[in-house]
């Protein structure tokens, strides 16, 4: 009579897996809460609070230019009021007050740019890569405009003795620089509109949108994924987009690995 021995390969392999998991030092520590991992994997949409900051800064900028024009006309161009202005400004000249206020406005723009960069970096890490690239230059353009205006103001102040032959020429040049700096206001307004549209649409991360477009192709809206180099495209932009996408996928895979490890440890301890 032939005796059939029961297969032991499966039991041995399962025992080896269980033993390896038991000996794994990662399972000895406290488990991560599944709710925390699920909330980290399935992140809720977070609105960007930079919309109101851009609007407020635009209002401050317009008010600054208007007050500067009034101060320059009343205290510098109209000579009959210079004595009163000297008393009100405590001996300071009008253009000195304007330049000091301009420096304060420039510092506000620097703080705004850092504030916006912090929130946009967070949106980039959450997978909104196209929005980050679309607003990257727009949020920094006001600072560049005012920095160029600061250089122009320094040139006007340094050449003020040479411009003394023409009456109030330095004042007119200073007001002209302030007028050109108003070009930053449309940039701030356009930025605020894009952020408001982003918050209202509440889009999914770019990876999810590409997966949805691959899963449900449409002839009316053909998808165009930028995962490779094509003729006419910028190689640096393609490499940067791929690097952002890889960084986001690495973070997402890390969260998924922690979730799988937590579930495996819970099944073993039950």
UniProtKB/TrEMBL annotation:
It comes from the Eukaryota. It is found in: Membrane. It holds the Pfam family TMEM192. The keyword Cell wall biogenesis/degradation does not apply. It is a multi-pass membrane protein. Its main location: membrane. InterPro entries: TMEM192. The chain crosses the membrane at residues 51-74, 94-116, 137-157, 169-193. Belongs to the TMEM192 family. This is Transmembrane protein 192. The lineage of its organism: Eukaryota, Metazoa, Chordata, Craniata, Vertebrata.
């Amino acid at each position: 009579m032939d005796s059939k021995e029961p297969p032991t390969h499966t039991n041995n392999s399962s025992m080896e897996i269980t033993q390896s998991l038991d000996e794994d030092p990662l399972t000895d520590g406290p488990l991560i809460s599944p709710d925390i991992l699920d909330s980290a994997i399935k992140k809720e949409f977070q609105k960007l609070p930079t919309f109101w900051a851009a609007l407020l800064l635009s209002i401050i900028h317009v008010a600054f230019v208007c007050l500067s024009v009034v101060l320059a006309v009343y205290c510098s161009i109209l000579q009959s009021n210079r004595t009163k202005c000297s008393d009100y400004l405590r001996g300071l000249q009008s253009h000195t007050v304007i330049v000091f206020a301009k420096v304060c406005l420039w510092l506000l723009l620097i703080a705004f740019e850092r504030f916006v960069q912090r929130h946009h970096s967070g949106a980039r890490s959450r997978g909104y890569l196209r929005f980050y690239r679309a607003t990257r230059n727009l949020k920094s353009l006001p600072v560049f405009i005012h920095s160029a205006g600061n250089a122009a103001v320094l040139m006007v102040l340094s050449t003020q003795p040479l411009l003394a032959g023409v009456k109030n020429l330095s004042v007119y040049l200073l007001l002209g620089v302030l007028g050109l700096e108003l070009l930053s206001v449309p940039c701030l307004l356009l930025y605020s509109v894009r952020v408001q549209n982003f918050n209202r649409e509440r889009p999914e991360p770019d990876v999810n949108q590409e997966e949805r477009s691959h899963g449900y192709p449409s002839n009316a809206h053909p998808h165009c994924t930028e995962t490779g180099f094509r003729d006419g495209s910028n190689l640096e932009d393609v490499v940067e987009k791929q690097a952002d996408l890889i960084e986001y996928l690495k973070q997402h895979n890390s969260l998924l690995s922690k979730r799988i490890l937590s579930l495996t440890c819970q099944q073993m301890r039950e």
